[in-house]
Design a protein that fits this description.
This is DUF3168 domain-containing protein. This protein is an alpha+beta fold and about 140 residues long. The chain is built from four helices and six strands, in the order E-E-H-E-H-E-E-E-H-H. The longest helix is centred in the last third of the chain and has 16 residues, at about 115-130.
Length: about 140
């Protein structure tokens, strides 16, 4: 399961923490961009210890199944020695207008950065969220 380290908050809330969904180049070159895309981190929409919770938290791995395509699960270091499960709600992505101002604000409040493997899984989940393939591409039968 992807882990994010160093994010601190008192209560998981969509208004408290966001994940940046834009490409690195959008953040590095904000003058040539209209906006920066972000999505909120929210509480997992299932009670801990339930089968649904376990399925949501395992849904980052799309190598065998595509489940909960609108959610990207993370385990967040809450700063109190504990970790909390959360999800990035891809269905709530929004653009922060004026990319330069958005980048300044996000940079000032940044708590951490995704590791490469987590970023790759996140990018794949975003692509699947938008593509919504009728057939899982890994199950496609090669043409003769």
């Amino acid at each position: 399961m992807p882990t994010l380290k160093g994010l601190q908050w008192d209560e998981l809330s969509g208004s408290v923490a966001v994940a940046v969904c834009s490409h690195d180049c959008d953040v590095e070159n904000p003058r040539s961009r209209t906006g920066i895309i972000v999505a909120p981190l929210i509480k997992v929409p299932a009670a801990p210890g339930t089968e649904k919770h376990a399925q949501i938290m395992a849904s980052w791995d799309v190598s065998s199944r595509i489940d909960y395509v609108n959610l990207f699960p993370v385990s967040v270091d809450a700063g109190d020695g504990e970790t909390r499960d959360a999800v990035v709600d891809l269905s709530a992505m929004v653009t922060i207008a004026k990319a330069g101002l958005g980048v300044d604000h996000l940079s000032a409040d940044r708590r951490q950065v995704m590791e490469d493997a987590t970023r790759d899984a996140f990018r794949t989940k975003i692509a699947l969220f938008f593509a919504r393939p009728y057939q899982d591409p890994r199950e496609a039968v090669p043409a003769d």
